[in-house]
Structures are given as C-alpha cells and as structure tokens.
Amino acid sequence: PRRGAPSACGKLAVVVPAHDEGAGIADCVRSLLACEVPPNGARVVVIADNCTDHTADVAYAHGAEVLRRDDRERRGKGYALEVAFDHVLADPEVEAVLVVDAGTEGQENFLVAMAAAFAGGADGVQTRYLVSNPARLMNVALLAFNVARPRARERYGLSVGILGNGFGLHRRVLERLPYTARSVVEDLEYHLMMVREGFSVRFVEETSVSAPGPESPEGQTTQRARWEGGRFRMIREHAP
C-alpha cells in the first residue's frame, strides 16, 4: 500500500460520537491525546449526541473539543457524524477526518499512520479494529472479519470497507459525498455510496484501535442481530 510522509498530510480531525458515554469517554480522550501527533496537528472533537448524562462535561475537562447535539427526532450515529463532519471541515486546514467510537483506545502511532496513508493518496482508510475483551472463539471470528478480510481485499486491490470504528475519510470524499447514511449499519451504507462514486478505502494495518464489546450473552446476541439485520437490509435495497 502507498504511504507518504505524514508531513504531506494536512491537519487531522478525530471525531468521537458519544451517547451517554460519561463512564468511558475520559479514557478515550486521554488515549487519543496521548497519540503521537502528526506534523500538521490533530483535533479531537467529541460530539455528545442526545446525551442525558455528563458526557460533554467529562470530555471537555479531559481536553477534547465538544459539540452538543440535541435532536430527539433525528437519532442515530449517522446524524451525529454528519453534524461533526460539517463542523470540522469548516476549518480549511483539516484535510481528513477520523472516526473513533467512545470507549476506544488508539495505538500510539494511530494518527501518524493514518496521516501517512492519506499522504499516499487514500480516499478513505480503515485500521485494524480489535475487541479488547473477547471470548476466545469470538476473537477468532472478529479477527477474521476485521483483519483477515480487509487484509485480503487490500492485497487484491479492492476497497476494504468501513468497520464503523477506526476509519477515516479525506476531505474530497466528504465534500463530494456528504455523510447522509442513516441505517443501523451506516458505515456499510456509506461505503456502498463511496464505491459507486469511484472512491475506495485502504487498509492501514500498521496501527489499530481497540474497544470492549458487550460482555453479557444478551448484549452480544442483540448486537449481532442488529448488525446482521442491517446487512440483510442493505442487500435487499442495493443488490438490485
């Protein structure tokens, strides 16, 4: 994969969508601010989306920029990301935007590695997305889905897809293709939109992000059902 000098990439903005994440947002912000900063800088922006707790205050106290979004009619990660992208792209120095879920920790070289990929010409990037508390068999499945599959797609020159956490988009992509994905699998929906417009996502294996998954069997089942239901919906809507 092509990589450039991180200094050839403009400023990065890291967007963290958060809904009632007061218990974990501090560790996420601390982790991002502890990453090696690319030569042209990086912003960490938490968008507190329809929060009923102290997420915004905690994020601000730990050094993040904070946006507050209160819209009870338009709910969901897609709406929050659209607002956050518009906000950070108003800064002409921002060349690309990264997305990290609340509760996530980034590897120390996360920002620099992503900047190098954008400097190499990437439209979009996806790093290794790891689960920090998986059961053994689940870990095998997640590594196959989140690492082996995008690695193979990268090897064969295909767009690797977006996994919802630890991905990034270049300014030129968002300016041409606003983030209007609204489904429960908005990352998959937006990736389909990107490919139709001729954009592709590169795999940045040199770094990673990690976040805990649901610990209870009920939570795991609910999450899997939501993901698979969303994928089947995308097949029904887009396959024709």
Q: Can you give keywords for this protein?
A:
8-stranded mixed sheet, 240 residues, 8 helices, 22% strand
List the helices and strands in order: EHEHEHEEHEHEHHEH
**Estimated share of beta-strand residues:** 15-25%
Instruction: Give the C-alpha Rg.
Output: 17 Å
Distance between the termini: 32 Å
Number of strands: 8
Instruction: Look at the helices and sheets and give the structural class.
Output: alpha/beta
The overall pLDDT average reads 90
Q: How do the strands of the widest beta sheet line up side by side?
A: 3-2-1-4-7-6-8-5
So what's the overall shape? globular
The helix tally amounts to 8
Helix content range of the residues, please? 40-55%
Instruction: Give the low-confidence spans.
Output: none
Q: Main β-sheet: number of strands, strand sense, barrel status? A: 8 strands, mixed
Describe, in plain words, how this protein is organized in 3D:
This protein is of the alpha/beta class and 240 residues long. The protein has helices at 25-34, 55-61, 77-89, 110-119, 136-155, 171-176, 186-196, 217-238; strands spanning 11-18, 42-49, 65-69, 94-99, 105-106, 124-131, 167-170, 201-211. It has an 8-stranded mixed β-sheet with strand order 3-2-1-4-7-6-8-5, with helices on both faces. It is globular and about 45 Å long. The two termini are 32 Å apart. The model has no long low-confidence stretch (mean pLDDT 90).
